[in-house]
Amino acid sequence: MTAKPHDYGRSRIDRERKTAFVSHDWAGTDSLTTTIVSTVAELSESDPTEVERLYDQIDPESLETLFAPTSGTAGRNIGQVSFQLDAYSITVHATGDIVVARPA
Questions:
Q1: Which residues fall within 8 angstroms of residue 31, CB to CB, at 6 or more apart?
Q2: Residue (of 75, 101, 86, 104) closest to 22 by Cα position
Q3: What is the pLDDT of residues 71-97, one digit of tens each?
Q4: CA-CA distance, 42 to 13, in Å (whole number)?
Q5: Is pLDDT of 26 > 90?
Q6: For residue 10, is pLDDT > 80?
Q7: Over the Cα atoms of the chain, what is R_g?
Q8: In angstroms, rounded to a whole number, what is the distance separating the alpha carbons of residues 23 and 12?
Q9: Cα–Cα distance between 21 and 101 in angstroms, integer?
Q10: CA angle centred on 66, ends 79 and 19, rounded to 5°
Q11: Pick from 23, 24, 4, 20: which is nearest to 12 by CA?
């Protein structure tokens, strides 16, 4: 799932407040890291290639492995990881929910 500037599903992006709540689609074709980077790019109104490299902050493979569904389709529902990326605070929940916020 790539972040869009409008509401869809359970996702909300508020450019004015520089915050986003995005639900990653584990069954989709985009990786968790793509969802994170595209959300930050949308909030900062920049191209995803201009966003700070994710692997400078956290190991993308480990992040994917930590939260990917187990046993095929069985999702995880416990745990979260927080880190900074391009002046945004990112929190990834085991459910696939991602909260992105720029501190005031």
A1: 60, 64
A2: 101
A3: 665 566 688 999 999 999 999 998 889
A4: 8
A5: no
A6: no
A7: 13
A8: 9
A9: 9
A10: 60
A11: 20
Bridge partners of 88, per DSSP, are: 85
Strand partners, 73: none
With 0.85 as the threshold, say if the pTM is over it. no
User: 102 and 19 in contact (C-beta within 8 Å)?
Assistant: yes
What are residue 49's phi and psi, to 5 degrees?
Answer: -70, -15
Q: Work out the average pLDDT over 45-55.
A: 92
Residues with Cβ within 8 Å of residue 63, at least 6 apart in sequence: 32, 33, 81, 92
Strands (E) across 2-96 are located at 12-14, 19-23, 80-85, 88-93
Query: Would you state the structure tokens that stand for residue 79, as one six-digit string?
Result: 């745990």
